[in-house]
Amino acid sequence: MDRIPAQQIDSEDVDSRVFNLYEKKEKIYIRKMEGLFQTLRQYTGWPLLLGYFLAPWLQIEGRQAILFDLPERKFHIFWLTLWPQDFVLLMWTLAIAAFALFFVTNLLGRVWCGYTCPQTIWTAIFMWAEQITEGERHQRIALDQTPSLFRREGRNRAGWNKVWKRGLKHGMWFGFAALTGVTFIGYFYGIRELIGDALAWQLPLTASSWSLFFTLATYINAGWMREHVCIYMCPYARFQSAMFDQDTLIISYDTARGEPRGSRRRNADHKAAGLGDCIDCTMCVQVCPTGIDIRDGLQYECIGCAHCIDACDSVMDKMGYPRGLVSYTTQNKLAGGSWTWKRPRLLGYGAALLVMLLLFAGVLLTRTPLRLDVIRDRGQLYQPVAGGLIENVFTLKIINMARTEQQYTLSVEGLPAPRLVPDVPVSVPAGEIVQTIVRVQVDPDRLADFNTAFDFVLESAAVDGADALRVSTQSRYFGPRPLAR
Ligand code: SF4
Ligand code: SF4
User: Fold this and answer.
1) Would you say residue 254 lies in a domain?
2) 444-451, long-range: CB within 8 Å, 24+ apart, which pairs?
3) In the list 53, 217, 346, 452, which could disulfide-bond 477, CB 3.0-4.6 Å?
4) What is the pLDDT of residues 19-46, one digit of tens each?
5) How many angstroms separate the alpha carbon of residue 28 from the centre of ligand 1?
6) pTM to 2 decimals?
7) Which residue's C-alpha comes closest to atom 3 of ligand 2?
């Protein structure tokens, strides 16, 4: 199938070539490339990789520093513990992440895809394993063409060579995938407990199945699917163009400088021969992980990895031409204009991001690590008790989200001379929920109505540097109708 640049696809181009769903995809053999941007990728990739693998081993206050404890419904993120009641914070985080992505994409194009996306980083590791086991591009092509041991003509030294190289590669892939899968589940199960239980053959089926699932997902995504994930599965590739404008950083081939392309001798005067700077060596295509030709223009398959820039710069160096035939640029610059930050979309995304960050910080800083849920006894509205009083029964759920044990005193506001039974402070350990039954008794003659709104108030004193806390939850008190008294 001929590849058609995305910006050239219009109604006239939509023909059977584009919608051939059963096209056999050619395998991409990527040429190894070194250069400025590949070095830059190492500076972004290694900290992310190390962070991913090492973070679950960090301990804070005797627990895993980052632990998404689903059975307990608590998310520990360093010193912060989030509860289901903090769901709004999760929504804020997702919204901030989305607007940060919009802002960065508008400014720097697909820098996320090229330098920080896990799919890109993990695929790079898998490609490295492929290169050290099966060799360079030409060696991998030759190895693929070697007949398999399952065929008569493959039962020779070359056939066995293929088997052990492939075996070693898949062993490395699977090992790294297993490390990834186990680490991922370690964020939910506790990495030390996971490994301890696995070594003792006591790992629950759910934990072992999910570890295996994520191992296989990593092995398949980074080892086998690679660019297909970016091209066919990732939604971000599809809607990124909505965030682009004329000043977004893109990787582009300088057509005016490069064309007409053609081969030539190194010291030949190509301009006199009517040629541009592109020597048509296809190095930029051979290093491209998605198998596209950047000279065809901006394409949605381009993940912004800058392999083609490094490849072309090395060719330009060898030819003695200036670098930058393929480079980071903008559509405005390509059209002869200059870059500007005064763009409505960039400023809009930036302003929205700033407002969200400020609101998020406000919510986080004013968050009260205490919650009180009140449930009325559904069996009886009220009941008479000794002394001519009536009683309503409530179940209180007290959630101590602080990192220390707390003593809370309970009171009631909005009822005439209420009596609480029991009327003693409630002690709740750090990060625990205590459920208690409280009876509220009042004199019915002092109630103005049969249905009175009132507040339960829970307070803790300032102890050991912790702030004094106060939360209140509204409920309703029922008594006899005034006529019935
Ligand atoms: S065209 Fe260049 S930047 Fe885009 S994916 Fe291919 S090598 Fe990477
Ligand atoms: S690497 Fe540069 S010179 Fe070679 S084909 Fe690509 S754009 Fe042309």
Assistant:
1) yes
2) 444/388, 444/389, 444/390, 444/479, 444/480, 444/485, 445/485, 446/416, 446/417, 447/415, 447/416, 447/477, 447/479, 449/482, 450/478, 450/479, 450/480, 450/481, 450/482, 451/476, 451/477, 451/478
3) 452
4) 555 556 678 888 988 899 999 999 999 9
5) 13
6) 0.79
7) 278
